[in-house]
Amino acid sequence: MGEHVDLYLPHHVGLQPIRVLNNIALYRLIHERSTVIKLLSIAVKNHGLDPEVKLIQGNDSLKIIGVSGRMWRTPYINTEKRLEAHETFLSLLWILSYSIFVLYSEKYCYPRLPDYKTNPKYDNASERIELAKRLYRYGKQIVVDFIDWDKNELPNPEKYIVQELDYIGQTKLYYTEAYKFIMYHELIHAVEHIDKISKETDDKTKLDFEIEADEKALKILYADVHQGYKFIVKCGSVISISSAMLLSSKIKGSTHPSFIERLKMVLEFEKTNDDHFAYGFACISIELWAEQWSVDLDANDDLNDCERFEYYYSQLKNK
Ligand SMILES: [Zn+2]
Fold first, then answer.
1. pLDDT tens track for 43-89
2. In angstroms, rounded to a whole number, what is the distance separating the alpha carbons of residues 280 and 191?
């Protein structure tokens, strides 16, 4: 075992290892784009949004038990018009970022490299895949029943061995983009939809609002991003959609677009130099979803990442 890094400091607020990223993620969420500050001030001035984005701490399952109405502790605008994110949801987003990134790298990406069979750095692929799957199982666990994140056994953002630094560091990039996409989506609801929605609003209108929130969140996310970084943004938005896939076997609901159409939309939103990474992430998300919910999905190992996504899309779009 190598030397451990422990990033926890007393000023980190929260009970779960994700707490070490909360300050920086929140800072980047709000201050990275001038449009976000503008939208926030419109939401506060014109629509009564609380100016504080609140991080809720607690060792709670993602599923809300015993309260009618809200089912999940996913980010939302509460009845006091405050934008909230619960730390269990943020943990889950990090877990998905790590699992999807590692599974894609080890399963599809590295085996295509010319030195894959001869370079010893790829020797422990099966152990790493197993570790990513164990972490993913932990994620599924806290959706329904919270238990502590085992910081000594499972990958996490707070405490890890030095040799893990590269994986943990890359995960943080994807996680931050996924987090921003979800929160910008909520911010768009706060600016555009909060005063237009009521008990009488029909499903078609709600569906249109969801699509609009996705599209406008993506516009904020990509604004002024360097071309070489855009694929990270795209991978992040794929991960954020996979967080919804973890909660339901359904492909589509009445008030939200289907996950397969949402994936297609974020994948095709803007061309990037390394699009295939995000397509690969989407394929892993779909495979994890199909396995979780025992859905038959035909795989074809001769396809590249983009073709594989299209193949899955053709199987799921009419289901
Ligand atoms: Zn929404």
1. 999 999 999 999 999 999 999 988 778 899 999 999 899 999 999 99
2. 33
Q: How far is the CA of 188 from the centre of ligand 1 (A)?
A: 9
Per-residue burial over 256-266, b if 16 or more Cβ lie within 10 Å, else e, is bbebbbbbbbb
Q: Strands 4-6, 54-56: parallel, antiparallel or unpaired by DSSP?
A: unpaired
Q: How far is the CA of 186 from the centre of ligand 1 (A)?
A: 6
Instruction: Give the C-alpha separation, 102 to 38, whole Å.
Output: 36
Nearest to 89 by CA among 20, 184, 11, 179: 179
Higher pLDDT, 286 or 255: 286
Distance, CA 207 to ligand 1 centroid (Å)?
Answer: 9
What confidence score (pLDDT) does residue 242 get?
A: 97
H helix intervals, the chain: 19-31, 34-47, 87-104, 125-144, 165-188, 203-222, 230-245, 259-268, 275-292, 305-316
Please give the structure tokens belonging to residue 154.
């499972």
Arithmetic mean of pLDDT, 172-200: 93
Q: What is the Cα gyration radius of the chain? A: 19
Domain ranges of the chain: 89-316
**Do residues 177 and 28 touch, judged by C-beta distance below 8 A?**
no
Query: What's the 106 CA to ligand 1 centre distance in angstroms?
Result: 33
pLDDT surpassing 80 at residue 1: no
Please state, in angstroms and rounded to a whole number, the distance separating the CA atoms of residues 85 and 61.
13
Residue 274 and residue 232: Cα distance in Å, rounded?
9
The answer, yes or no, to whether residue 280 has pLDDT greater than 70, is yes
Q: How far is the CA of 8 from the centre of ligand 1 (A)?
A: 33
Q: Encoding tokens for residue 77? A: 């605008």
CA of 218 to the centre of ligand 1 (A): 13
